[in-house]
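We read letters as residues; the fold follows as tokens. A sample entry reads:
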Amino acid sequence: MKKLWIALCSLISACSPSPKPIHYGEAMCHWCKMTIVDQQHAAEAVTRKGKVYQFDAIECLVQYLDELGNDDQFAWLLVNDFNRPGKLIDAQTATYLVSAQIPSPMGAFLSAFATRAEAEAMQQQKGGQLYDWVGARQYVRQR
């Protein structure tokens, strides 16, 4: 019985949804179909069943989510940390900066930061407006 329990637990944990690395220069954006090359603005969504969708910009992720109308099916919503290119962070806890001094692939000038302090430091250098996840999504909708 103990062996069966261990095997069952291993099987369940092996099937849990998890993020996948973005293969920059090869992967295609699920929303706009552009090749994902920018390691500071890419994003990823992973469903509770483990299906992974990758995006070349945060605004593509937002538009995809808005079209679906239901975020509950996702185990992970991730965005690249602007200060750590290629590193995915939780989209819902990131702080966002919209600055005309920092272009993004789809022209929304939207960048994500792991902490509010890092976003504020960049805002001091580049100007712009800070948002949380809800505000960033609203900003994309109003563009």
Summary: The CA atoms of residues 117 and 127 lie 14 Å apart. The first helix runs from residue 2 to 14.
